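hey m, so remember when u said the tokens were messed up on ur end? i reran from scratch. heres the input so u can diff it against urs
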Amino acid sequence: MNLPNYITLSRIFTIPVLIWILSSKFFSQQTGEKEVVAASLFLLASITDALDGYLARRRGQVSTVGMLLDPLADKLMITAAFVTLVQFNPRIVPAWMAVIIIGREFLVSGLRSIAAQQGFTIEASELGKFKMVVQIISVTAAIVDARWAVWNMHGFIFPVELIARVSIWFMVALSLISAVDYFVAFWKKIDRRVRRRRAFVLSRRKRNLLAAEITPLRTGDRPPDH
């Protein structure tokens, strides 16, 4: 285990804490402590998502464990956040939206698993990276919106409800588009491998047929006279 992997594990450990904060009645309902603490924790966990990958590349500590834990932590965090938000703020995050967003995560994980079994990888697209940024904004805004529709902070007014609604709809659209993007990339690589395998099999058959025709001549047999 190295530092980037410990950071990734810390992100996984924040997931049950985030669920507990959003689901419990420990915090005051009047002051908005729950929303502030939950949003801050989610933002901190999201920062570690970029930090562990940066440190792993910078320190030359990219490992198999890290390659397994990092996407797993991302999927668990997003799944836990949206499942909890269906109960915590259903006005902004209805169940069908959560199903689309979470379903996309499972689809991409499944495609990458099949790709790994076939001996190739599906690289994260720029669209997928942009989707992660929108996820952070949408989840944070949806948490804060449960307490403040408009947030006035030192004279700066943030239309939280508007940001939450726009970002969550944008999130759904990006989930669908990026799912199609990953599937197309997966299908192209699978189709390319199938074509190569088919070409190899055909060329091998041709070599075998040619060898079968030449073998009698090599053994001294002569073709019959007509």
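this time it looks ok to me. Helices lie at 3-23, 33-58, 64-88, 95-118, 126-145, 160-218. if urs says something different then somethings off w ur setup not the seq
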